Amino acid sequence: MFAPEFEYHRANTVAEAIDLLSSNPGAKVMAGGHSLIPLLKLRLARPGVVVDIGGVAEMKGITIADGNIRIGALTTHWEIESSSQVAEANSLLAEAAGGIGDTQVRNRGTIGGNLSHADPASDWGTVLTALNATLEIRGPGGATRTASPTDFIVGPLTTTLGETEILTAVNVPVLAANQRAEYAKMAHPASGYAVVGAAVVVNVDGHTCTGASLAVGGAVPAPVRLTSVENALTGKELTFENIEAATAQADNDLGGEILGDFFASAEYRRAMAAVETKHALFHATEVAHH
Ligand SMILES: Cc1cc2nc3c(=O)[nH]c(=O)nc-3n(C[C@H](O)[C@H](O)[C@H](O)COP(=O)(O)OP(=O)(O)OC[C@H]3O[C@@H](n4cnc5c(N)ncnc54)[C@H](O)[C@@H]3O)c2cc1C
């Protein structure tokens, strides 16, 4: 199906894009177009104006300094996946980027577009929640604000982004020497999207867990932190039995609304949330398992 007619504008700066959004109520920005174009073609979105931000140079690229990785919102998954500096500073970012969709999707799709689209099955929301990322947002009149991924993504295709705001960058801490991180997902065979995905960051002192940040996505409308599992693991030795016992608590944190469809029922996804979390923890901590 063809997209409905719309006016096309190209912005060269963030300020120009925000001006265009402000003067055209209902307008949508386009980054890689990998989610917006299908929505237009399916007539699920009908903006009168599309503002192409693909050429906004200030929203591109990766800078690593003072323990922080700043990723411009227009940076593609492939740029993150293929950066040797990112792989060294935070292996979880490189791993997650490399598992998104296929080569075409990774070459065109952007981290900012992915987060702003807020597909429950997307990988970045889950991974950036576990990594305690901070999102940078700009609005009219030079206004700036920050948000955590869980403040930003509130439900399927729903964020707290205002109509005239733009997500400009994502900040992620460099992993410390005592942190182990991993992402495990049950990928949909057709798209690679997460049916269930679990991201884990574990602080270790020898074989003991001294803190953990764990998140699950895909199974739930928006990524969630597994605080019950984090608490059950903290202070414990990282053994097969302790990881099994802690992840059995994952259900406490998923909330009442588990997603289900003809591919994977809610009951199955609920069970897989604990399985993928366990899987990620075993790999991150190199605990032998079978
Ligand atoms: C076949 C296929 C397989 C995929 N597989 C996966 C997968 O395995 N894992 C995964 O995580 N994702 C997957 N994706 C999604 C993909 O990773 C893209 O990141 C995603 O489609 C959106 O990114 P985009 O840059 O194309 O955004 P666009 O399509 O341009 O925009 C998406 C939405 O976000 C808004 N937007 C975009 N950028 C901004 C911004 N900076 N500020 C404010 N609003 C903005 C747009 O207005 C639009 O509403 C897949 C997509 C396809 C088509």
What percent of residues adopt helix (DSSP H or I)?
Answer: 25-40%
Which stretches of 5+ consecutive residues score pLDDT under 50? none
What coarse outline follows from CA principal-axis ratios?
Answer: globular
**Mean pLDDT figure:** 96
Largest sheet: 5 strands, antiparallel
Helix-strand makeup class? alpha+beta
Number of E strands = 14
Strand content: 25-35%
CATH third-level topology of the largest domain: Uridine Diphospho-n-acetylenolpyruvylglucosamine Reductase, domain 3
| Separate helix tally | 12
Summarize the structure in words.
This protein is α+β, with helices and mostly antiparallel strands. The chain folds into three domains: 7-52, 2-Layer Sandwich (Uridine Diphospho-n-acetylenolpyruvylglucosamine Reductase, domain 2), CATH 3.30.43; 57-173, Uridine Diphospho-n-acetylenolpyruvylglucosamine Reductase, domain 3, CATH 3.30.465.10; 179-285, 2-Layer Sandwich (Enolase-like, domain 1), CATH 3.30.390.50. 33% of the residues lie in helices and 26% in strands. It has helices at residues 14-23, 36-41, 77-81, 84-89, 91-98, 103-108, 111-117, 123-130, 149-152, 227-233, 240-247, 266-285, and strands spanning 7-10, 28-30, 49-52, 62-65, 68-72, 134-138, 144-147, 153-155, 158-159, 166-173, 179-187, 194-205, 208-217, 224-225. It has a five-stranded antiparallel beta sheet. Strand 12 (194-205) and strand 13 form a beta hairpin. Helix 5 runs antiparallel to helix 8. The mean pLDDT is 96.
